[in-house]
């Protein structure tokens, strides 16, 4: 089934009876060439690109719950390419280009909206740092505009520009930054992979990884054993637990990140606004809800829900930045489990086990990485060599100290990201 | 979340700064697997864990806190100096 304007019109007029399920629901086969553990955004995109770019379709994605039930359906959907460090910037640049072609590539409306992202600054020092970041973005071939105070005011007249503690000096504007419909991204990749022959197996928890003589042989699951020549681990917040099944310990600590949404309002916030000094960011969904969040709760957690101190902190930061937000009513809040690495950057690499690959450590920024990570991880699994834009995401960089990707410049230490 | 500081009594989580997994400091003189494990690699358990917190807005003591990462229940705290491994 393909989507088209004509099809939507026809179905609308005939009671929407002609739509079919978006993907098949097959029984697991006893053996595959490649098994991907984890049916989040990254796992589904990996399966899609294995099929599309490498012609590998004897592939299964094993998901312990339902497709898209993890972080891919819990995030605040910011998509951007405003990284500074070589190693990160070419990867996110590639990922954003894939976003820009995604709806055509998947024939799926993911509501990708390049509404522009503005990172605010509040001092001369911060302005210099953002000017430098903007230049790095431009050198990478992406877009960045340094706005002064009046420039920000034209876009965001409702901010508190004269706040005593954080007066607004200006902002770094990234016009191609924006948001997307998170569930649709998972569904679109799922449909594309399934159409090409990939088996998507839900309610199938991987409970063990079979290794013989240093080589991967398959996995044990809640639906029986499945043999595989190659296995990819892409389980986000659960990375440490699944890697432990292969005897590995990762440079990862799982933390909880919360987010919030208000009841639907008329259009008021046209951009994505990031208020780094207050650890606060916000956008407005197409349904009208103000979607916002802050920092990690800052302690190891698998609870997928946070505590009140961070709720208070985020609300205070929102009030500081845009006092008008106090009139909106919060509808709900939730949390997700983040796979935090020691330097805050991800890992896409081989492991010590032949045929076993891992893609993890996306921290709180892995939604925008979904297409790029899927593309690069598929390349690594299919060709057994790194895809150039993701070649810096090495697992051994912590042990060797070479190529650490400490984007925030805070140090490579677990409690600092 | 509230943490029972052995010196100050039970206090709000806001008074404490999280540092990370409570691990024995390696005695190795040279950089190697011992230091890599200490600084980077984690058990990262879903369930009971022991981590280091500092009672920053209280007595300043470093504590080893036993808690559950799934339920957020705090099960106990002792001074890091002399904490049982
Ligand atoms: C509140 C919040 C806000 C965020 N905001 C942003 C943002 O604005 N922009 C951005 O870029 N990123 C954001 N992120 C981060 C982003 O959501 C994640 O980095 C990304 O979704 C992780 O990759 P994933 O989609 O593959 O993860 P998931 O969707 O979590 O996929 C992992 C899957 O693995 C499955 N799994 C786990 N263990 C097993 C097992 N043993 N067997 C089988 N399956 C298993 C899980 O059930 C899950 O479905 C945010 C995250 C949160 C929580
Ligand atoms: Zn104390």
UniProtKB/TrEMBL annotation, chain A:
Signal peptide per UniProt: none
Cofactor(s) this protein cannot do without: FMN; FAD
GO biological process, one term: tetrahydrofolate metabolic process
Keywords: Cytoplasm, FAD, Flavoprotein, FMN, Nucleotide-binding, Oxidoreductase
Segments traversing the membrane: none
InterPro entries assigned: FAD-dep_OxRdtase, FAD/NAD-bd_sf, Rhodanese-like_dom, SoxB
UniProt-listed Gene3D superfamilies: D-Amino Acid Oxidase, subunit A, domain 2, FAD/NAD(P)-binding domain
Keyword Flavoprotein in record: yes
One Pfam family it belongs to: DAO
Record-listed E.C. numbers: 1.5.3.24
Compartments reported by the entry: Cytoplasm
Catalytic activity: sarcosine + (6S)-5,6,7,8-tetrahydrofolate + O2 = (6R)-5,10-methylene-5,6,7,8-tetrahydrofolate + glycine + H2O2; sarcosine + O2 + H2O = formaldehyde + glycine + H2O2
Domain annotation Rhodanese: ranges: 34-78
Superkingdom field: Bacteria
GO terms of molecular function: nucleotide binding; sarcosine oxidase activity
GO annotation, cellular component aspect: cytoplasm
Family: Belongs to the SoxB family.
Name assigned to this protein: Sarcosine oxidase subunit beta
Automatic annotation (TrEMBL), chain B:
One Pfam entry name: SoxD
InterPro entries xref list: SoxD, SoxD_sf
GO biological process: tetrahydrofolate metabolic process
Domain of life: Bacteria
Signal peptide: none
GO MF annotation terms: sarcosine oxidase activity
Name used for this protein in its record: Sarcosine oxidase subunit delta
């Amino acid at each position: 089934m393909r989507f088209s304007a004509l099809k939507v019109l026809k179905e609308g007029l005939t009671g929407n009876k002609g739509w079919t399920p978006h993907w098949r629901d097959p029984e697991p086969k006893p053996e595959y060439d490649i098994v991907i553990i984890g049916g989040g955004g990254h796992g589904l995109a990996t399966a899609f690109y294995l099929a599309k770019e490498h012609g590998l379709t004897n592939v299964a994605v094993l998901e312990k719950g339902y497709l898209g039930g993890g972080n891919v359906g819990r995030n605040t959907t910011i998509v951007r390419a405003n990284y500074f460090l070589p190693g990160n910037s070419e990867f996110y640049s590639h990922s954003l280009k894939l976003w820009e072609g995604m709806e055509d590539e998947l024939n799926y409306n993911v509501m990708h909206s390049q509404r522009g992202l503005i990172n605010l600054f509040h001092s001369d020092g911060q302005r210099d740092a953002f000017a430098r970041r903007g230049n790095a973005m431009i050198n990478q071939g992406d877009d960045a505009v340094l706005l002064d105070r009046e420039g920000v005011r034209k876009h965001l007249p409702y901010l508190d520009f004269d706040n005593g503690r954080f007066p607004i000096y200006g902002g770094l504007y990234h016009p191609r930054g924006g948001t997307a419909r998170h569930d649709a991204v998972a569904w679109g990749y799922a449909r594309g992979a399934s159409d090409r022959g990939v088996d998507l197996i839900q309610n199938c928890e991987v409970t063990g990884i079979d290794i013989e003589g240093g080589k991967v042989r398959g996995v044990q699951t809640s639906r029986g054993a499945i043999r595989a020549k190659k296995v990819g681990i892409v389980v986000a917040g659960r990375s440490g637990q699944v890697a432990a099944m292969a005897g590995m310990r990762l440079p990862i600590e799982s933390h909880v990140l919360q987010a919030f949404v208000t009841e639907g309002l008329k259009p008021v916030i046209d951009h994505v606004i990031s208020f780094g000094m207050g650890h606060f960011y916000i956008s407005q969904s197409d349904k009208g809800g103000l979607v916002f969040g802050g920092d990690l709760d800052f302690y190891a957690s698998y609870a997928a829900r946070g505590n009140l101190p961070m709720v208070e902190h985020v609300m205070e930061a929102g009030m500081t930045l845009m006092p008008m937000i106090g009139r909106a009513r919060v509808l709900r809040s939730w949390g997700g489990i983040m796979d935090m690495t020691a330097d805050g950057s991800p890992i896409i690499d081989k492991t010590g086990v032949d045929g076993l690959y891992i893609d993890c450590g996306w921290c709180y920024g892995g939604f925008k990485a979904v297409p790029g990570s899927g593309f690069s991880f598929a390349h690594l699994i299919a060709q057994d060599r790194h895809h150039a834009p993701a070649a810096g995401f090495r697992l051994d960089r912590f042990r060797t100290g070479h190529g650490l990707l400490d984007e925030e410049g805070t140090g490579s230490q677990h409690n600092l990201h | 979340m509230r943490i029972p500081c052995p010196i100050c009594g039970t206090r709000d989580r806001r008074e404490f700064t999280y540092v990370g997994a409570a691990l024995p400091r390696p005695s190795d003189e040279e950089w190697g697997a011992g230091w890599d494990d200490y600084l980077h690699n984690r058990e990262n358990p879903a369930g009971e864990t022991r981590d280091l917190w500092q009672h920053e807005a209280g007595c300043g003591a470093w504590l080893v806190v036993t808690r559950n990462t799934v339920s957020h229940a705090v099960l106990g705290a002792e001074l890091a100096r002399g904490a049982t491994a």
